[in-house]
Sequence to fold (136 residues):
Amino acid sequence: MAQLIRIDTAAPPFAPAPITDAEAAAMFRAALNLFRLWGVTDDQAAMLLDLPRRTFARWKAGAIGRIGRDGKARLSNLMGIHKALRLVFRDPSRGYAWIKAQNDAFAGRSALDVMLGGELTDLMRVRRYLDAERGW
Fold:
């Protein structure tokens, strides 16, 4: 008589691979384009990335230094916000404009105002909101 063998079907816990330095540098370059499309000033961009203004200027000029774990998380959230906006709005220009528009979900402030709070959690708050809006 055949015996049944128990097979473990539980999925292993998800553990994302760390963002490499090359991936972080590519995200930084993409973020520069995103900041331009959002109409973000260099001072605001430095605040979003939690970088001193001079460091941001050097990196923007092409001398990208080592991006730490917090910086990689900030860049990842910015890319997630961009992706969500592209999914929520069919017209990209509406998504770019949304960043500066007043929003009841943020007590009348814009998403940019929220993100300029300077904390990583401020970026995460906007990303979570957009992910919920797009139903993900």
Observations:
- Residues 48 and 117 are 8 Å apart (CA to CA).
- Helices lie at 21-38, 42-48, 53-60, 69-88, 92-98, 111-115, 120-133.
